[in-house]
Amino acid sequence: MIYIFWILLFIIFYSYLGYPILLLIFNLPKRIFYRDNKSQNKYEPEITLFVAAYNEADFIEQKISNSLNLNYPKDKIKYVWVTDGSCDETPSILSKYNEFIVLHNKERNGKTGAINRGMKFIKTPIVIFSDANTNLNKNAIIEIVNQFKDPKVGCVAGEKRIAPQNKDNAVNSGEGIYWKYESFLKKNESIFNSTIGAVGELFAIKTELFEEIESDTILDDFIISLRIAQKGYKIKYTPEAYATERASANINEELKRKNRIAYGGFQAISRLKSLLNPFKNPILSFQYISHKLLRWTLVPVSIFLLFFVNLYLSINNNWNSIFAYIFYLQVIFYLFVLLGYLMQSIKTRFKIIFAPYYLFIMNISEIIGFIRFLRKKQTVNWEKAKRE
Fold this sequence. Notes:
By secondary structure, this protein is an alpha/beta fold. It contains 12 helices and 8 strands. The protein is globular and about 75 Å long. The chain has a single domain (1-388), classed as Spore Coat Polysaccharide Biosynthesis Protein SpsA, Chain A, CATH 3.90.550.
């Protein structure tokens, strides 16, 4: 039982803290000796800003304004919108703008279907994907394009940010803290070798590297970016290009979103099997297993098993051992989970108190997502989580 305890604890520690610490150690020589000698020559190829939008009438005007006011030569930006299945005013609003290519079919085939269809109309060497309910910073395109100066770069991931509030509830606080942690991790992965995956809110690829993805794909952004990495190209992370969006309206909406993402994670594992073979691409496989695979598979089970194994060892060691002290820490963690649950609708400045609750919800979602994956209970078309 003692061996089981230490194995479970190691899996959790390594996934959330050990791997980031290793990246910091690996990157230390680069931070000390490497100097950025990027060419200052302008690099301004033609790009396409691609947005797949489904019933986004509430956000579309804001997104249009944001898109048209980004810093980049106007004659070098193309705009492609795919609005398949939308039954609100989204297509008609977009059709008022001559700058946009609007592709619309009555039939709804999900975001994956929209991407596969829309990519056939992309003629520029670089395509930048973004969501309709996010706003990009003014220099987002410039920062992303600069990364493509390196011929080894095939994909560039921007940063996802949650719109901050003076006082936040459980979802806004938890998601905001989580994405700050993820951004730290992605930045260090990028320095070390390659960021593991991109988020659909903002990422870019070399158009020539795109391969049509399976129609039932859930995590299209993750699959597209990792398949490019499998070809030997780098996924670079640039926090200077970021997309800002609101958090989910409440914990139920966030849980709905997380369950779907968890399902997509297990689907991705089944479709990226070669990354499980460290002999093909050892560094990328190491990163993929450390960052994603463990967190999607072993960590959720380890977290819940650890409590009971730890309780057993504490009882059998008279509550006066390292096992007991670790158990006390677990009890404190779950008390904060309970506090987060009780206060989930209350907005506060002390946002850190919601971190344990959000972490708990994330791992519950992984278990639910796995069950759904086994039962094939997830459609590619889904009702978006309501945002604040």
